Amino acid sequence: MKKIFSLLFFICTLSLFASEPAIDETETLYRESERLTREYIASCKILKNAAAGEITIIQKNDIENIIRVQEDNLETFKKSMEVLKKLEKDYEDFSDDKKSSTLDALYLQQERLKDLNRNLENAIQLNKNAIENYNQ
Fold it and tell me: What is the DSSP secondary structure assignment for residue 91, as one 8-state letter?
């Protein structure tokens, strides 16, 4: 039990110093996600046009649905950035417990964003390869 309290105290102490870097890193990852999402949307549009004569209507619809979902994601990124800005302003007024849980949530979100960015990079590369194949 003492270890748990010691760990919580340590995390709370760190949260005083780690808030801005954690928020900044999360913001950076959101911006990277936004950039990669825009690139992915563009690659989907290019792929749809490059493969126009060779894919079915269902495949075209699937690509259009992917584009719509990614455009919705862009809106979500904007809202998340607004929340981060508000969080940055309000963070110092939080209780130690709230600061600690906020940092935990930020670190978890950073991991999710890193995974998302890796997946987007892979999807972009797959689309580029497919575009090259259709353009040959």
Answer: G
Q: Cα(66)–Cα(27) distance, rounded to whole angstroms?
A: 24
Please choose, from the candidates 96, 79, 82, the residue with its C-alpha nearest in 3D space to the C-alpha of residue 11: 96
| pLDDT tens sequence across 16-53 | 445 679 999 999 999 999 999 999 999 999 999 999 88
The two tokens of residue 132 are 């090259």
CA separation for the pair 78, 69 (Å, rounded):
15
Confirm if 110 and 29 have CB atoms less than 8 A apart: yes
Please, are residues 131 and 46 in contact by the beta-carbon 8 Å criterion? Answer: yes
- CA atoms within 13 Å, Cβ hemisphere of 97: 1
Element (H, E) at 82: helix 57-90
Residue type, 6: S
pTM: 0.82
